[in-house]
Backbone:
């Protein structure tokens, strides 16, 4: 299922968020523990959990999400946490950021939620806002997961490499378990890439 903007707004208002357990993802925690601090972007940031974690750990953070309600929640959580984050409501296919701004981009389930027809535009757009050698961390559902029309796209390693190899060097694609608050746990991938 690809959520449209109206559905996302309703889900955030109702707090019916199967992907949001209020904790930063394990792959992000591991990345932060091993990386230098820099200017970071969280795409499809949702309620801001990962962005807040990045800010608390010394990153200068900007976020973007298409949902105004998600950004309202994220702003409130950021204020409560006492962190300074640049919040933007906007489209990840046309981001309001300058070229080569970010040293790190976090994607906790944004790419696999987009329509297949927009994947190429997304890859070009995130590459545009990233500095050379910047890192991109993506979590997505794996094609090892059985089909479920209630969930976003499942991606194979081959599809990931095909989509990103023009702009990125794929450093690793690792199997992970994606915790599901509503639909149970799922097979996924944690993918780390470096902009060419």
Residues:
């Amino acid at each position: 299922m690809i959520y449209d903007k109206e559905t996302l707004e309703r889900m955030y208002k109702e707090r019916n968020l199967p992907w949001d357990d209020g904790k930063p993802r394990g792959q992000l925690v591991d990345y932060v523990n091993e990386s230098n601090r820099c200017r970071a972007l969280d795409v499809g940031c949702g309620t801001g959990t990962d962005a807040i974690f990045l800010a608390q750990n010394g990153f200068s953070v900007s976020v973007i999400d298409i949902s105004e309600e998600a950004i309202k929640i994220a702003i409130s959580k950021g204020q409560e946490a006492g962190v300074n984050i640049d919040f933007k409501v906007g489209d990840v296919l046309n981001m309001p950021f300058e070229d080569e701004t970010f040293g790190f981009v976090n994607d906790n389930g944004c790419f696999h939620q987009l329509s297949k027809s927009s994947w190429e535009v997304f890859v070009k757009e995130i590459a545009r806002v990233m500095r050379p050698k910047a890192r991109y961390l993506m979590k997505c559902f794996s094609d090892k997961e059985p089909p479920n029309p209630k969930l976003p796209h499942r991606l194979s390693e081959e599809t990931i490499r095909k989509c990103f190899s023009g702009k990125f060097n794929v450093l690793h694609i690792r199997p992970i378990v994606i915790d599901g608050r509503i639909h149970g746990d799922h097979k996924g991938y944690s993918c780390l890439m470096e902009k060419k």
Notes: The beta strands are 39-43, 60-65, 85-89, 102-108, 130-142, 154-155, 168-178, 186-195.
